[in-house]
Design goal:
The protein is mainly beta. Helices cover about 15% and strands about 45% of the residues. The relative contact order is 0.20.
């Protein structure tokens, strides 16, 4: 089974808006901190999905965003998700409660201290270091252990980015 989704990290004053996923029981992201976004609806473009999902989860209407990369997320034997990764630095509107968890502005440097996916550490570093578009493949087992990472089609070694560990 494969899925299409968007993931956005909204930036303001040196912070990212993070979502602590605490609500859904059968959620691959349960208790993790992630950006906002979600799955495509029929006939949506990545940008349409992005704008809709951000509005639904935060109350914000994006006014400035950038498509940063595509993340191929493989989880176990049967889940493959292609995530269009965005950052945004402009929005308007008032925050609303999120029905998927708690939203919190977190200092960019402190994001690494949260309960995030090991592979997220890789793309956070890429967001910090690179302005160009990238393709990142992350393969996890069912225990959420990162088994393999490839950047732009080339395998990454286990110490490539900010301490993210890839099982060798």
């Amino acid at each position: 089974m494969f899925k299409l989704s968007t993931l956005c990290y909204i930036e303001k004053d040196g912070k990212y808006l993070m979502l602590h996923r605490t609500v859904k029981e059968n959620d691959v992201n349960k208790d993790k901190w992630i950006g906002v976004g979600g799955h495509f609806e029929a006939q949506e473009s990545p940008e349409e999905c992005l704008v809709r999902e951000v509005q639904e989860e935060t109350g914000y209407t994006l006014t400035s965003y950038c498509y940063r990369g595509i993340v191929t997320f493989v989880y176990g034997e049967d889940v493959v998700e292609y995530m269009s990764l965005y950052t945004a630095d402009g929005f308007k509107g008032d925050a609303i409660p999120c029905d998927e968890g708690e939203l919190e502005w977190v200092d960019k440097e402190k994001v690494y201290e949260l309960n995030i996916w090991e592979g997220d550490k890789i793309f956070f570093r890429l967001l910090e270091e690179r302005r160009d578009f990238f393709s990142l493949k992350l393969v996890y087992d069912r225990e959420a252990t990162l088994l393999y990472a490839a950047l732009d089609g080339k395998p990454m070694d286990s110490y490539s980015v900010n301490g993210a560990k890839v099982k060798e």
